[in-house]
Specification:
- With 466 residues, this protein is mostly helical.
- The chain has two domains: 372 residues, no CATH class; 89 residues, no CATH class.
- It is 65% helix and 4% strand.
- A four-stranded mixed beta sheet has the order 2-1-3-4, covered by helices on one side.
- Helix 2 runs parallel beside helix 17 and helix 13 runs antiparallel to helix 14.
- The longest helix has 35 residues.
- It is globular, with a radius of gyration of 24 Å.
């Protein structure tokens, strides 16, 4: 099945695999290209200060730093290979979802539907094609691996230690990839209810003791992250604990159910709240009717969204990648349940034919929407490609600690260091100044730099000023 899921993912994403690096990619690449590998690895586990030629990689995610350190030495500047690596991880996540779905339902149909739906969903935007979003992919991979291994542990009469230890190790790796995986211990509680609910106080104590290492590891991680990064993140308006979480939860539910922008069509505005309400009602009904798998998937959706609810800037589509996993399981289980109800009423053959036609049509629509979601990042990748190659072509070889001035680069540079980091990947030890302005600098200002370039909006190209 893994090969088929990779083929399905490739069919959706292949037109997008030739995009260049963009935004945070350059920060990770610049850190990864350091010649002193042991020092770079140590730096990944610390909170280093910025230097004139290098910025700290986004947040504290050592596993992602290690991925880029290794990837740079294997893939180098070949962006397409990095994209393919992301796609392989995405297909692996779909495969793990299929394995988990099979263990929970023993239904091949639910497993295939859940994995296929997850592979093509447009819900998570460009999480698969943005190279830096490997954070989402790696975190989801180890999150799912922990669930599959812990399910194996629960379903085996001998309680194999390799499965238990593997699940705990997978949690550690997931936490080292991204903060959103702190919900895993709570998801494991739901998994226990589905797979092996305790029937006696003795069994309840055993399940609790088994969970304690997972809880302890996660709590230690949360305390560490809070003490190191919460103040700085909240001070710049990124992340803060507060009542806005409820508003964000509703916005995320609307988004994952109808992943379309509000200005897409008039009907989107009123369909979104209806769809979000339907999910809440269906999830509550599953819990009340004791449909364990669907109830578990519903709770998992909410828990997967929990770490993102405190962002002050609202909803980011790519952050719904982890929530798309249980959403796919929930939708597949509901579809199979509906099919079982319809079969005696309309007949097996018409039902099968309708399902095939419906699946093909839905798959085409979702895949088309997924591809169409990448217009902006594709444009940014083209602009980054132009910056990365054209400026060095204009400036030529420069000695260490030379200076470059770039004016009016169209690269989206909200952090004010993306242009700098892109050129510091091309020139690892050159000072870069990036500025925006209507008028080009005068000759005296230009003379202060070894190379000064201006982006000409009319001709859409960089020109040398000196």
């Amino acid at each position: 099945m893994a090969g088929a899921l990779f083929g399905l993912s490739l069919a959706v994403y292949w037109p997008l695999l030739d995009g260049f690096f963009v935004w945070d990619d350059f920060t990770w690449l610049r850190a990864a290209q350091n010649a002193d590998v042991p020092a770079t690895v140590r730096r990944a586990f610390t909170f280093p200060s910025a230097t004139p030629f290098q910025r700290p990689t986004p947040f504290w995610r050592p596993l992602v730093d290690l991925y880029f350190i290794a990837g740079w030495r294997v893939f180098g500047e070949h962006a397409t290979v990095w994209h393919v690596s992301n796609l392989v991880l995405h297909a692996a996540n779909a495969s793990l979802l299929a394995a988990l779905s099979w263990r929970l339902t023993r239904s091949a149909l639910v497993s295939v539907l859940a994995a296929a739906l997850f592979a093509i969903l447009p819900t998570y935007g460009f999480a698969v094609t943005w190279i830096s979003s490997v954070t989402e992919l790696l975190a989801a991979f180890y999150f799912l691996l922990a669930l599959v291994l812990y399910t194996t542990f629960l379903q085996s009469a001998r309680r194999p230690l390799f499965a238990y230890g593997g699940a705990l190790a997978a949690l550690l790796l997931a936490l080292l990839a991204k903060e959103s995986t702190i919900s895993l211990p709570l998801v494991l509680v739901g998994l226990i209810v589905v797979v092996d609910p305790p029937r006696t106080m003795s069994e309840a104590r055993s399940r609790t003791l088994e969970l304690l290492p997972f809880v302890a590891l996660t709590v230690a991680y949360v305390v560490f992250q809070y003490s190191q990064q919460y103040d700085s993140a909240s001070s710049i308006g990124l992340y803060k604990i507060g009542g806005h979480a409820w508003r964000n939860l509703w916005s995320y539910l609307e988004w994952i159910m109808v992943p379309l922008m509000d200005d897409r069509a008039p009907w989107v505005l009123w369909v979104k709240p209806i769809a979000a309400s339907a999910l809440l009602l269906a999830g509550c009904a599953a819990i009340l009717l004791r449909n364990k798998v669907m109830g578990f998937a519903f709770i998992w959706i909410l828990l997967a969204l929990l770490p993102y609810l405190f962002f002050l800037s609202g909803v980011f589509s790519r952050y719904s990648y982890l929530a798309a996993l249980p959403l796919s399981l929930f939708a597949a289980s509901l579809a199979v349940l509906a099919g079982r109800w319809l079969r005696p009423r309309i007949g097996a053959f018409p039902l099968a034919g309708g399902l095939v036609v419906g699946a093909l049509l839905l798959g085409f629509l979702l895949a088309n929407e997924t591809r169409g979601r990448h217009a902006w990042i594709d444009l940014q990748a083209e602009l980054s490609d132009q910056l990365f190659h054209d400026v060095p072509a204009l400036c030529g070889d420069l000695p260490p600690e030379s200076t470059i001035y770039v004016q009016n680069s169209p690269v989206f540079d909200i952090t004010r260091d993306r242009v700098i980091m892109a050129l510091n990947v091309a020139y690892s030890d050159v000072f870069v100044t990036s500025a925006q302005g209507v008028e080009p600098p005068d000759a005296i200002a230009v003379a202060q730099f070894d190379c000064a370039v201006l982006y000409d909006v009319t001709f859409r190209q960089y020109t040398r000023l000196d």
